[in-house]
Amino acid sequence: MYKPALAPYDCTVTAIEATPIPAAALYLRISKDDLGDELGVARQRKDCLRLVEDRGWRVFETYQDNDISASERSKKARPAFRRMMDAVRTGSVDVIVGWDLDRITRRPAEAEEMWKLLLDVGHVRVVTVSGDDVDLATGDGLLVARIKMAVAAEEIRKMSQRIRRKHLELAQDGKPVGLGAAQPFGYKPGGMEVNEDEAALLRRAGEDVLAGVPVTAIAREWNEQGVRSPFPRKTTNGWRAESVRALLVSPRPAGLRRHSPGNGPVVEYPAVWPAIIDRATHDRLVAALSAGRGKGAPRRRSLLTGLVRCGRCGEVMTRDSKDGRPYLRCRAGAGRPGCGRNGMAAEQVENAVVRRVFAHVEERAAAGVEAAMAAGMNDEAAQVATELAQAERFKLTLAEQMAVRGDFDDAELAVMRKANRDRIGVLRGRLEELTATSTMRRWDSLAAFEDEWMRSDTDRRWGLLRSIIDSVQVRPYEGRRGDLERVAVDFHK
């Protein structure tokens, strides 16, 4: 029987190329996150991941800029956005996924830069949860994207204008914009009633700073006492030197509402909440802290650091050791202008100074002249503080004139700036003298001073001495004076 020949079987296997899964870059951003809990970006992440899953894509990387605005007014950099653009540039990303187009960018110039990059790369799309997709492969894609960005930018401009006008209205009425996440220090929740316990701490801190106590010492003390801090931190020590300083120069405890327009001078209006400290004290604190007093500083290692001068040449004596014991010495040599011919055991100098300070406080309290003196000094200090605040504001006005080249030429401005700087220096010096002297009013008896002294650390004791002492001199040893007689202490008048 005839059987036809069978054709040879073709065993060739044709490879079927798999379609690559698009790589999606998730971009998450929220403009403001006061609490730092990232709840807003977490919601965006959830929605974006659902979109990626529905489209069958894979996540290449998630880029997050939390608490950063994307508007033209913002000066903050967006590092995650830049990293995402780098990934697009290298061809690692096929699609950018965001919650909305304005989450990705609101800056027209930045948007144009992004569109150009996407067109150069040629295959990357922008897809959003809200449906504002941008496909540059179509003829109208770029046009639609630009229209959407322009509409969003104009809406942001109008909204910003309305907000600025509302903020000015609230400031002029002395009302707060809002308390945010924090309860103001010195006030009860809501910020309209004084918390007397915290207010007492704030007033005392102000007096301490004006007496020369550094804010570092106040911060340490408040941390040790567990004083509530309105500045959220992730450590148990909620107070730092800078946060104490910010509190003491803040206008709120003085019953002032500050308004800072973007293109104008800072203005302060009377507030609707009660003041904790008076305006004169506020101005003195601002002047003292802006002049460098009370700022953060290392913990002092001795009681009389910087307070003792050589009775022979007038230079500040420094502390080292002699025969294993602390010793105050007038040093000479490179960078040391002293005579190098005077010194005394530090313990002897400290004991002599402390004994004379206690005797001085007791004498002044017994004489009963402190109230009259303090009242007079406070009146003059308030006047000087007011003049100093005016001079500081005039300094800002001159700086603005320099920037815009307004009513004066450069030579006239230079003369006025120098005259104002000189005046500020004189006023600060006088205010320092007055505020140091007026702190004596705190002690109406030796027992009150002794109680404060015993509760104070070295930094605070240094501040107490500085508020009372004008100068300490160690006279040269001449062979006929006892050691204690060599220590001369002059007190503030």
**Helix coverage percent of residues?**
40-55%
Q: What characteristic shape results from the CA principal axes?
A: elongated
Largest sheet: 4 strands, parallel
What is the terminal separation in angstroms? 140 Å
Summing up helix and strand content along with how strands pair, one would put the structural category as alpha/beta
Tell me what you see in this structure.
- With 493 residues, the chain is of the alpha/beta class.
- It folds into 3 domains: 23-159, 3-Layer(aba) Sandwich (Rossmann fold); 196-290, no CATH class; 308-491, no CATH class.
- The protein is 47% helix and 13% strand.
- The protein contains 14 helices and 14 strands.
- The protein has helices at 39-55, 79-89, 101-104, 108-121, 141-172, 196-210, 215-225, 241-249, 279-290, 346-367, 370-404, 410-438, 446-454, 458-468, and strands spanning 23-30, 58-66, 95-98, 125-128, 256-259, 267-270, 308-310, 318-322, 325-329, 332-333, 336-337, 343-345, 469-474, 487-491.
- The strands form 5 sheets. The protein has a 4-stranded parallel beta sheet with strand order 2-1-3-4, sandwiched between helices.
- The protein is elongated, with a radius of gyration of 34 Å.
- The chain starts with 22 loop residues before the first strand and ends with a strand.
- 28% of the residues are buried.
- Residues 293-298 and 369-376 have low confidence and may be disordered.
Which features would summarize this protein structure in a list?
elongated; three-stranded mixed β-sheet; 47% helix; alpha/beta; Rossmann fold; 14 strands; four-stranded parallel β-sheet; 14 helices; 493 residues
